[in-house]
Design a protein that fits this description.
Layout (H helix, E strand, L loop, with lengths): L9 E5 L3 H10 L4 E10 L5 H10 L5 E8 L5 E6 L20 E4 L3 H10 L3 E2 L4 E2 L8 E6 L5 E5 L3 H6 L8
Parallel strand pairs: 1-4, 5-9
Antiparallel strand pairs: 2-3, 3-4, 6-8, 7-8, 8-9
Length: 169
Amino acid sequence: MTTYPKRFSHIGITVPDINKAAKFYSEVMGWYTIMPPSLVKKETDTAIGQMCIDVFGDDWETFEIAHLATSDGIGVELFSFPHGKKEAPEFNPFNTGLFHFCVQDPDIEGLIEKIVAAGGKQRMPIREYYPNDKPYKMCYVEDPFGIVFEIYTHSYELTYSSGAYANEG
């Protein structure tokens, strides 16, 4: 069996308020709304109900979900559960688990301004991978709900193909 690169389909993000999150990600990030916030009920007589029981177990009755998509067709599922913690876990990249996701925008300064204006945070100064050589920039930010993500100005392939970690000189 041949191994080949799999495409990235979507990411699921749990948020405290589905409507505020859907608004933030559509208005600030520009993601397309595929399905607006909708209520899902625990039920065994529908395919989606049974699927959710398989995934979440039996300890829930309802939750809200919205589906968005990036400009390159990557899906973003937003989930909001009535129970559970309503704040993001403390940022700790040293522990096993999902660390962050990354978006790409050539206007990194403009996107950061929009994120901050919408209640998010800039977590660090904008940094350059190749100062005075190539315009590849990055920055970690936080959405209004405490979810940390990264912004690149250029593609992942361009950023790393030149050896960003190579010894200089």
